[in-house]
Write a structure and sequence with these properties.
The complex is a heterodimer of chains A (142) and B (141). Chain A is built from five helices and no strands. Chain A is mainly α. Chain A has one domain. In chain A, helix 2 runs antiparallel to helix 3 and helix 4 runs antiparallel to helix 5. Chain A starts with a helix and ends with a helix. Chain B is mainly α and 141 residues long. Chain B has one domain. Chain B is built from four helices and no strands. The longest helix of chain B is centred in the N-terminal third of the chain and has 29 residues. Chain B starts with 18 loop residues before the first helix and ends with a helix. Classes of the chains: A mainly alpha (142), B mainly alpha (141). The interface between A and B is medium-sized, with 19 and 20 residues.
Chain lengths: 142, 141
């Protein structure tokens, strides 16, 4: 039983790794956007605003997955879902027209600049949230 | 690689302007090598289904020590006017590189399953990658 209980928490088991990769991406996105805001915001305000938004979403998602209490689980669903939508939308738009945001963002080319981690991660995150919530409800009914 | 790199950067009694760069490169290769060893150690633990042990965290501390040495060398080099092409970008990467292992170690150590070893593996590979990026930024690429 203790193993089952541990599995419910989004930050436990495989979730440890998920949160780690999220944390690293949050650092990368945060570093990138702070640099862009300080040094060259005027060059491409849309792209850099988008980068900042992406960074904020990654930071919140990291904390939400790490804490993993029911309230934070809702936050995790929303932020991870936002990332999935964001990377697919921005990726598709940047593919259709490379200059659409003026400059590249974390999500341009489906996260190409980050080894496609931004594309894969939200879907792994959604799978993990689904999986851990399922085992939680299974235990409740059992 | 140019043939001009003939002097020994460590043994040189005085430090001519160019050789500090060799020290930086040597330190970088050392840190990358240590990260690869740490990643291999963690990978071995993943394969053996074992959690991170304290000795591995000491290994991470050794990497951190050489990262700090790198920071000092970078400051000295920067003060001499031969710093990174883009100092803000370089120090941003440096700060990130410095905090990743301690944070990952604390996060990994609280988990007593093989997943903690995967966390250490990911963090080590990331630090090695960031070292390479820092070198690119230092060289103005």
């Amino acid at each position: 039983m203790p193993e089952r209980a541990a599995e419910r928490r989004t930050g436990r088991g495989f979730g440890r790794v998920l949160v780690t990769v999220y944390g690293i991406l949050a650092f990368a996105a945060l570093g990138r956007s702070s640099y862009e805001l300080v040094v060259k915001f005027g060059e491409a305000p849309v792209a850099y605003t988008l980068s900042t938004l992406a960074a904020a979403v990654y930071v919140v998602a990291t904390f939400a997955l790490a804490i993993g209490t029911p309230a934070w689980r809702v936050t995790a669903w929303i932020t991870v879902g936002l990332e999935a939508v964001g990377v697919v939308t921005v990726g598709a738009l940047s593919l259709a027209d490379a200059g659409v945001f003026g400059e590249s963002t974390v999500w341009s080319g489906f996260g190409q600049g980050y080894g496609y981690v931004p594309l894969v991660l939200p879907f792994v995150g959604l799978w993990w949230l689904w999986r851990t919530s399922r085992s939680a409800s299974e235990e409740r009914t059992a | 690689m140019e043939a001009q790199v003939t002097h020994d950067p460590i043994a040189a009694p005085q430090v001519p302007p160019g050789s500090l760069r060799d020290v930086i490169l040597a330190l970088l290769l050392l840190v990358v090598a240590l990260c690869v060893v740490l990643a291999g150690w963690a990978g071995w633990f993943v394969a053996r289904n074992r959690a991170v042990i304290l000795n591995q965290l000491w290994g991470g501390a050794v990497v951190e020590f050489f990262l700090l040495v790198q920071g000092v060398v970078a400051i000295v080099q920067g003060a001499g006017g031969g710093g990174a092409a883009d100092p803000l970008l370089f120090w941003g990467y440096y700060a990130t590189t410095l905090v990743i292992l301690p944070l990952a170690a604390a996060w990994a150590f609280a988990e007593r399953t093989k997943w903690s070893s995967v966390v250490l593996l990911a963090a080590s590979v990331t630090v090695a990658f960031l070292e390479w990026r820092m070198w690119q930024i230092w060289m103005g690429a």
